From TrEMBL:
Belongs to the iron/ascorbate-dependent oxidoreductase family. This is 2-oxoglutarate-dependent dioxygenase. Residues 220-326 form the Fe2OG dioxygenase domain. InterPro entries: DIOX_N (IPR026992), IPNS-like_FE2OG_OXY (IPR044861), IPNS-like_sf (IPR027443), Oxoglu/Fe-dep_dioxygenase_dom (IPR005123), Plant_2OG-oxidoreductases (IPR050295). The keyword Iron applies. PROSITE patterns: FE2OG_OXY (PS51471). It comes from Iris pallida (Sweet iris). GO terms for molecular function: dioxygenase activity; metal ion binding. The keyword Oxidoreductase applies. Keywords: Dioxygenase, Iron, Metal-binding, Oxidoreductase. Pfam families: 2OG-FeII_Oxy, DIOX_N.
Length: 375
Protein backbone atom coordinates (compact mmCIF):
# COMPACT_ATOMS: atom_id res chain seq x y z
CA UNK A 1 0.00 0.00 0.00
CA UNK A 2 1.45 3.34 -1.08
CA UNK A 3 -0.05 6.66 -0.05
CA UNK A 4 -2.86 4.81 1.68
CA UNK A 5 -3.95 3.18 -1.58
CA UNK A 6 -4.16 -0.52 -2.37
CA UNK A 7 -2.76 -1.75 -5.68
CA UNK A 8 -6.15 -1.85 -7.39
CA UNK A 9 -6.56 1.89 -6.78
CA UNK A 10 -3.06 2.61 -8.05
CA UNK A 11 -3.72 0.63 -11.22
CA UNK A 12 -6.90 2.56 -11.96
CA UNK A 13 -4.94 5.80 -12.30
CA UNK A 14 -3.30 4.44 -15.43
CA UNK A 15 0.07 5.75 -14.26
CA UNK A 16 3.29 3.76 -13.96
CA UNK A 17 3.71 1.81 -10.69
CA UNK A 18 5.26 3.87 -7.87
CA UNK A 19 8.95 3.36 -7.11
CA UNK A 20 8.15 1.14 -4.12
CA UNK A 21 7.06 -1.59 -6.56
CA UNK A 22 9.97 -1.37 -8.99
CA UNK A 23 12.46 -4.23 -8.83
CA UNK A 24 16.20 -3.72 -9.19
CA UNK A 25 17.52 -4.40 -12.70
CA UNK A 26 18.95 -7.83 -11.85
CA UNK A 27 15.75 -8.94 -10.07
CA UNK A 28 13.20 -7.99 -12.71
CA UNK A 29 11.26 -10.76 -14.47
CA UNK A 30 12.86 -9.84 -17.78
CA UNK A 31 16.30 -10.52 -16.26
CA UNK A 32 15.34 -14.19 -15.98
CA UNK A 33 12.60 -14.81 -18.57
CA UNK A 34 10.47 -17.92 -18.23
CA UNK A 35 10.45 -20.85 -20.62
CA UNK A 36 7.63 -23.22 -21.51
CA UNK A 37 7.97 -26.79 -20.26
CA UNK A 38 5.79 -29.75 -19.35
CA UNK A 39 4.60 -29.13 -15.79
CA UNK A 40 3.49 -32.52 -14.39
CA UNK A 41 -0.21 -33.36 -14.68
CA UNK A 42 -1.48 -36.24 -12.53
CA UNK A 43 -4.65 -38.31 -12.87
CA UNK A 44 -5.59 -38.55 -9.21
CA UNK A 45 -8.19 -41.25 -9.77
CA UNK A 46 -5.66 -43.56 -11.39
CA UNK A 47 -3.47 -43.45 -8.27
CA UNK A 48 -6.14 -45.41 -6.40
CA UNK A 49 -6.56 -48.12 -9.01
CA UNK A 50 -4.83 -51.48 -9.10
CA UNK A 51 -2.93 -50.38 -12.23
CA UNK A 52 -1.83 -47.07 -10.73
CA UNK A 53 1.88 -47.90 -10.25
CA UNK A 54 2.97 -45.93 -13.31
CA UNK A 55 0.97 -42.87 -12.26
CA UNK A 56 2.40 -43.17 -8.74
CA UNK A 57 5.95 -43.11 -10.11
CA UNK A 58 5.03 -40.10 -12.19
CA UNK A 59 3.82 -38.38 -9.03
CA UNK A 60 6.98 -39.36 -7.12
CA UNK A 61 9.13 -37.81 -9.84
CA UNK A 62 7.03 -34.64 -9.80
CA UNK A 63 7.35 -34.26 -6.02
CA UNK A 64 11.09 -34.86 -6.01
CA UNK A 65 12.05 -32.72 -8.99
CA UNK A 66 9.27 -30.12 -9.30
CA UNK A 67 7.58 -29.99 -5.90
CA UNK A 68 4.25 -29.36 -7.59
CA UNK A 69 1.76 -30.91 -9.99
CA UNK A 70 -1.67 -30.26 -11.46
CA UNK A 71 -4.62 -32.60 -11.10
CA UNK A 72 -6.28 -32.99 -14.45
CA UNK A 73 -5.94 -34.56 -17.89
CA UNK A 74 -5.64 -32.94 -21.29
CA UNK A 75 -7.73 -35.37 -23.33
CA UNK A 76 -10.57 -37.71 -22.58
CA UNK A 77 -12.22 -40.39 -24.67
CA UNK A 78 -15.81 -41.50 -24.14
CA UNK A 79 -16.55 -45.02 -25.30
CA UNK A 80 -20.18 -45.85 -26.03
CA UNK A 81 -20.45 -49.65 -25.80
CA UNK A 82 -24.24 -49.77 -26.03
CA UNK A 83 -24.20 -49.70 -29.81
CA UNK A 84 -22.89 -52.40 -32.19
CA UNK A 85 -20.03 -50.31 -33.54
CA UNK A 86 -17.95 -48.74 -30.80
CA UNK A 87 -17.77 -45.01 -31.29
CA UNK A 88 -15.05 -42.81 -29.91
CA UNK A 89 -16.25 -39.30 -29.20
CA UNK A 90 -13.89 -36.39 -28.64
CA UNK A 91 -15.37 -33.93 -26.20
CA UNK A 92 -15.17 -30.18 -26.50
CA UNK A 93 -12.81 -28.36 -24.10
CA UNK A 94 -15.78 -27.11 -22.07
CA UNK A 95 -17.35 -30.54 -21.80
CA UNK A 96 -13.98 -32.14 -21.16
CA UNK A 97 -13.54 -30.41 -17.86
CA UNK A 98 -17.14 -30.99 -16.87
CA UNK A 99 -16.43 -34.71 -17.02
CA UNK A 100 -12.99 -34.21 -15.51
CA UNK A 101 -14.51 -33.70 -12.07
CA UNK A 102 -14.96 -37.48 -11.86
CA UNK A 103 -11.39 -38.14 -13.01
CA UNK A 104 -9.32 -35.50 -11.26
CA UNK A 105 -10.24 -33.82 -8.02
CA UNK A 106 -13.99 -34.55 -7.78
CA UNK A 107 -14.98 -30.91 -7.23
CA UNK A 108 -17.71 -29.90 -9.71
CA UNK A 109 -16.40 -27.35 -12.19
CA UNK A 110 -19.59 -25.32 -11.84
CA UNK A 111 -18.77 -24.90 -8.16
CA UNK A 112 -15.19 -23.86 -8.92
CA UNK A 113 -16.69 -21.20 -11.18
CA UNK A 114 -18.76 -20.07 -8.19
CA UNK A 115 -15.59 -19.75 -6.10
CA UNK A 116 -13.85 -17.62 -8.70
CA UNK A 117 -16.97 -15.58 -9.36
CA UNK A 118 -17.47 -14.80 -5.66
CA UNK A 119 -13.85 -13.68 -5.37
CA UNK A 120 -14.03 -11.54 -8.49
CA UNK A 121 -17.25 -9.87 -7.35
CA UNK A 122 -15.68 -9.04 -3.99
CA UNK A 123 -12.69 -7.30 -5.58
CA UNK A 124 -15.07 -5.41 -7.88
CA UNK A 125 -16.85 -3.83 -4.90
CA UNK A 126 -16.35 -0.11 -4.19
CA UNK A 127 -13.32 0.56 -2.03
CA UNK A 128 -15.36 1.66 0.98
CA UNK A 129 -17.22 -1.68 0.94
CA UNK A 130 -13.98 -3.69 0.88
CA UNK A 131 -12.34 -1.56 3.57
CA UNK A 132 -14.83 -2.90 6.11
CA UNK A 133 -12.68 -6.03 6.06
CA UNK A 134 -9.30 -4.26 6.14
CA UNK A 135 -6.26 -5.97 7.66
CA UNK A 136 -5.17 -2.63 9.12
CA UNK A 137 -6.46 -1.38 12.45
CA UNK A 138 -7.58 2.21 13.00
CA UNK A 139 -4.06 2.94 14.26
CA UNK A 140 -2.48 1.40 11.16
CA UNK A 141 -1.29 -1.84 12.76
CA UNK A 142 -1.08 -4.83 10.42
CA UNK A 143 -3.20 -7.93 10.98
CA UNK A 144 -2.59 -11.19 9.16
CA UNK A 145 -6.24 -11.66 8.22
CA UNK A 146 -8.43 -9.39 6.17
CA UNK A 147 -8.33 -7.35 2.98
CA UNK A 148 -5.33 -5.34 1.86
CA UNK A 149 -1.68 -6.08 1.17
CA UNK A 150 1.09 -8.13 2.76
CA UNK A 151 3.04 -6.86 5.76
CA UNK A 152 5.54 -4.07 5.17
CA UNK A 153 8.53 -4.48 7.49
CA UNK A 154 10.96 -1.85 6.23
CA UNK A 155 10.87 1.50 4.44
CA UNK A 156 12.95 0.18 1.54
CA UNK A 157 10.99 -3.08 1.09
CA UNK A 158 10.00 -3.62 -2.55
CA UNK A 159 6.27 -4.28 -2.68
CA UNK A 160 4.25 -6.79 -4.73
CA UNK A 161 1.67 -5.74 -7.30
CA UNK A 162 -1.35 -7.49 -5.79
CA UNK A 163 -4.18 -7.10 -3.31
CA UNK A 164 -5.36 -10.01 -1.23
CA UNK A 165 -8.07 -11.23 1.09
CA UNK A 166 -6.53 -13.57 3.66
CA UNK A 167 -8.77 -15.61 5.97
CA UNK A 168 -8.41 -18.46 8.45
CA UNK A 169 -10.93 -21.13 7.42
CA UNK A 170 -9.96 -23.98 9.76
CA UNK A 171 -10.32 -24.70 12.65
CA UNK A 172 -13.88 -23.48 12.16
CA UNK A 173 -14.28 -22.21 15.73
CA UNK A 174 -11.35 -19.83 15.20
CA UNK A 175 -12.78 -18.10 12.14
CA UNK A 176 -13.01 -14.32 12.37
CA UNK A 177 -16.34 -14.03 10.63
CA UNK A 178 -16.32 -10.26 10.97
CA UNK A 179 -13.63 -10.33 8.25
CA UNK A 180 -15.59 -12.67 5.98
CA UNK A 181 -17.35 -10.58 3.29
CA UNK A 182 -21.13 -10.50 3.30
CA UNK A 183 -21.11 -9.08 -0.23
CA UNK A 184 -21.45 -10.94 -2.51
CA UNK A 185 -24.20 -12.61 -0.50
CA UNK A 186 -23.00 -16.15 -1.25
CA UNK A 187 -19.33 -15.50 -0.40
CA UNK A 188 -19.37 -17.06 3.08
CA UNK A 189 -21.30 -20.16 2.02
CA UNK A 190 -19.10 -20.68 -1.03
CA UNK A 191 -15.90 -20.33 0.97
CA UNK A 192 -17.13 -22.74 3.66
CA UNK A 193 -18.11 -25.35 1.08
CA UNK A 194 -14.85 -24.93 -0.82
CA UNK A 195 -12.94 -25.39 2.44
CA UNK A 196 -14.66 -28.73 3.02
CA UNK A 197 -14.25 -29.99 -0.54
CA UNK A 198 -10.63 -28.93 -0.91
CA UNK A 199 -9.68 -30.57 2.42
CA UNK A 200 -10.94 -33.93 1.16
CA UNK A 201 -8.84 -33.70 -1.99
CA UNK A 202 -5.76 -32.60 -0.05
CA UNK A 203 -6.08 -35.55 2.32
CA UNK A 204 -6.23 -37.94 -0.64
CA UNK A 205 -3.03 -36.41 -1.98
CA UNK A 206 -1.31 -36.62 1.43
CA UNK A 207 -2.35 -40.27 1.77
CA UNK A 208 -0.67 -41.12 -1.53
CA UNK A 209 2.44 -39.12 -0.64
CA UNK A 210 2.87 -41.07 2.62
CA UNK A 211 2.62 -44.34 0.68
CA UNK A 212 5.27 -43.16 -1.77
CA UNK A 213 7.65 -42.63 1.17
CA UNK A 214 6.69 -45.99 2.70
CA UNK A 215 5.32 -44.26 5.78
CA UNK A 216 2.10 -45.20 7.53
CA UNK A 217 -0.59 -44.16 5.05
CA UNK A 218 -2.20 -41.57 7.33
CA UNK A 219 1.09 -40.11 8.56
CA UNK A 220 0.78 -36.67 6.96
CA UNK A 221 -2.98 -36.54 7.55
CA UNK A 222 -2.40 -37.24 11.24
CA UNK A 223 0.36 -34.65 11.37
CA UNK A 224 -2.13 -32.05 10.20
CA UNK A 225 -4.69 -33.25 12.71
CA UNK A 226 -8.12 -31.77 13.40
CA UNK A 227 -6.74 -28.38 14.50
CA UNK A 228 -4.46 -27.68 11.56
CA UNK A 229 -4.35 -24.07 10.48
CA UNK A 230 -5.83 -23.64 7.01
CA UNK A 231 -5.81 -20.21 5.39
CA UNK A 232 -7.49 -19.09 2.20
CA UNK A 233 -5.79 -16.38 0.20
CA UNK A 234 -7.72 -14.67 -2.59
CA UNK A 235 -5.20 -12.94 -4.87
CA UNK A 236 -6.09 -10.07 -7.18
CA UNK A 237 -3.43 -8.93 -9.66
CA UNK A 238 -4.42 -5.71 -11.46
CA UNK A 239 -3.19 -5.31 -15.01
CA UNK A 240 0.28 -3.85 -15.40
CA UNK A 241 2.09 -3.20 -18.66
CA UNK A 242 5.62 -2.92 -17.22
CA UNK A 243 7.99 -5.84 -16.67
CA UNK A 244 9.72 -4.16 -13.73
CA UNK A 245 7.34 -5.39 -10.99
CA UNK A 246 6.27 -8.75 -9.58
CA UNK A 247 2.74 -9.86 -8.79
CA UNK A 248 4.40 -11.83 -6.00
CA UNK A 249 8.18 -11.95 -5.62
CA UNK A 250 10.03 -15.29 -5.76
CA UNK A 251 9.34 -17.35 -2.62
CA UNK A 252 8.55 -20.81 -1.32
CA UNK A 253 5.43 -21.57 0.73
CA UNK A 254 5.65 -22.07 4.49
CA UNK A 255 2.86 -24.64 4.41
CA UNK A 256 2.71 -28.43 4.37
CA UNK A 257 0.90 -28.23 1.05
CA UNK A 258 -0.93 -25.56 -0.92
CA UNK A 259 -3.95 -26.15 -3.17
CA UNK A 260 -4.18 -23.45 -5.83
CA UNK A 261 -7.09 -22.63 -8.10
CA UNK A 262 -5.57 -20.66 -10.97
CA UNK A 263 -7.16 -18.08 -13.22
CA UNK A 264 -8.91 -19.81 -16.12
CA UNK A 265 -7.70 -17.40 -18.79
CA UNK A 266 -4.61 -15.46 -17.73
CA UNK A 267 -1.18 -16.94 -17.01
CA UNK A 268 1.20 -15.58 -14.42
CA UNK A 269 2.49 -18.32 -12.13
CA UNK A 270 6.06 -19.48 -12.76
CA UNK A 271 8.19 -22.08 -10.96
CA UNK A 272 11.98 -22.31 -10.68
CA UNK A 273 13.12 -25.67 -12.10
CA UNK A 274 16.79 -26.56 -12.51
CA UNK A 275 17.78 -22.91 -12.51
CA UNK A 276 15.18 -21.87 -15.11
CA UNK A 277 11.83 -20.16 -14.63
CA UNK A 278 9.04 -22.26 -16.15
CA UNK A 279 5.56 -21.02 -16.98
CA UNK A 280 2.72 -22.96 -15.36
CA UNK A 281 0.13 -23.46 -18.14
CA UNK A 282 -3.57 -22.88 -17.79
CA UNK A 283 -5.77 -25.95 -17.41
CA UNK A 284 -9.25 -24.60 -16.61
CA UNK A 285 -10.69 -26.04 -13.40
CA UNK A 286 -7.60 -28.08 -12.57
CA UNK A 287 -6.09 -27.73 -9.12
CA UNK A 288 -2.38 -27.16 -8.69
CA UNK A 289 -0.76 -28.72 -5.61
CA UNK A 290 2.40 -27.03 -4.40
CA UNK A 291 4.53 -28.47 -1.61
CA UNK A 292 5.61 -26.12 1.16
CA UNK A 293 8.67 -25.88 3.38
CA UNK A 294 6.97 -27.91 6.13
CA UNK A 295 6.60 -30.87 3.77
CA UNK A 296 10.23 -30.60 2.64
CA UNK A 297 11.25 -30.76 6.31
CA UNK A 298 8.93 -33.66 7.19
CA UNK A 299 10.11 -35.63 4.15
CA UNK A 300 13.73 -34.95 5.20
CA UNK A 301 14.41 -33.24 1.90
CA UNK A 302 13.12 -36.03 -0.34
CA UNK A 303 10.20 -33.92 -1.57
CA UNK A 304 10.96 -30.35 -2.62
CA UNK A 305 9.36 -27.04 -1.74
CA UNK A 306 9.69 -25.12 -5.01
CA UNK A 307 10.51 -21.45 -5.38
CA UNK A 308 7.85 -19.76 -7.47
CA UNK A 309 6.75 -16.27 -8.47
CA UNK A 310 3.90 -14.41 -10.13
CA UNK A 311 4.52 -12.01 -13.00
CA UNK A 312 2.16 -9.22 -14.01
CA UNK A 313 0.07 -9.14 -17.14
CA UNK A 314 -1.75 -6.66 -19.35
CA UNK A 315 -4.96 -8.29 -18.09
CA UNK A 316 -6.19 -8.59 -14.53
CA UNK A 317 -5.69 -11.99 -12.96
CA UNK A 318 -7.03 -13.86 -9.95
CA UNK A 319 -6.21 -17.01 -8.01
CA UNK A 320 -7.35 -18.74 -4.82
CA UNK A 321 -4.79 -20.48 -2.61
CA UNK A 322 -5.50 -22.77 0.34
CA UNK A 323 -2.54 -23.17 2.70
CA UNK A 324 -2.40 -26.21 5.03
CA UNK A 325 -0.01 -25.98 7.99
CA UNK A 326 0.65 -27.97 11.14
CA UNK A 327 -0.89 -26.85 14.42
CA UNK A 328 1.11 -23.92 15.87
CA UNK A 329 2.21 -25.79 19.01
CA UNK A 330 3.11 -29.00 17.16
CA UNK A 331 6.78 -29.73 16.52
CA UNK A 332 8.00 -29.76 12.95
CA UNK A 333 10.74 -32.27 12.10
CA UNK A 334 11.64 -35.07 9.65
CA UNK A 335 9.60 -38.26 9.94
CA UNK A 336 11.53 -40.88 11.90
CA UNK A 337 11.05 -43.43 9.14
CA UNK A 338 12.99 -41.19 6.74
CA UNK A 339 16.11 -40.79 8.88
CA UNK A 340 18.82 -43.46 8.90
CA UNK A 341 22.56 -43.93 8.36
CA UNK A 342 22.21 -43.59 4.61
CA UNK A 343 20.06 -40.45 4.87
CA UNK A 344 20.91 -38.50 8.02
CA UNK A 345 18.59 -35.91 9.49
CA UNK A 346 18.78 -32.71 7.43
CA UNK A 347 16.53 -30.47 9.52
CA UNK A 348 16.29 -29.63 13.20
CA UNK A 349 13.19 -29.88 15.35
CA UNK A 350 11.27 -26.67 15.98
CA UNK A 351 7.79 -25.52 16.90
CA UNK A 352 5.58 -24.78 13.92
CA UNK A 353 4.67 -21.43 15.46
CA UNK A 354 8.33 -20.42 15.62
CA UNK A 355 8.91 -21.60 12.08
CA UNK A 356 5.97 -19.58 10.73
CA UNK A 357 7.09 -16.46 12.59
CA UNK A 358 10.35 -16.67 10.66
CA UNK A 359 8.53 -17.50 7.43
CA UNK A 360 6.33 -14.40 7.38
CA UNK A 361 9.30 -12.15 8.07
CA UNK A 362 11.43 -13.72 5.35
CA UNK A 363 8.51 -13.88 2.88
CA UNK A 364 8.06 -10.12 3.12
CA UNK A 365 11.72 -9.64 2.27
CA UNK A 366 11.80 -12.24 -0.50
CA UNK A 367 14.09 -14.58 1.42
CA UNK A 368 14.11 -18.39 1.79
CA UNK A 369 12.69 -19.91 4.96
CA UNK A 370 13.58 -23.62 4.99
CA UNK A 371 17.26 -22.77 5.48
CA UNK A 372 16.49 -21.64 9.03
CA UNK A 373 15.58 -25.24 9.90
CA UNK A 374 18.58 -26.92 8.29
CA UNK A 375 21.23 -28.54 10.49
Amino acid sequence: MVGGKVVQELARTGQAPPDRYIQTNDSRPIAAPAVTSAVPVIDLRRLFRSDGAEEAEKLRSALQSWGLFQVGVYHLLVIDTDIPTIQVIWLSRRTLFTVLQAIGHDIPVSFLDDVQDAARRFFQLPMEAKQKYSNLTETGEFGLEGYGNDCVLTEDQILDWNDRLYLLVQPEDERKLELWPEDPSNFRDVLHEYTMKARKVVERVLWVMAKLLELEENYFINQLGDRAGVYARFNYYPCCSTDSVFGIKPHSDGSVITALLLDKEVEGLQVLKDGEWVKVPIIPHALLFNLGDQMEIMSNGIFKSPVHRVVTNTKERMSVAMFYALEPEKYLEPAEGLVDEKRPRLYKKMRTKDFLDVFFQKFSLGQSTSDCAKL
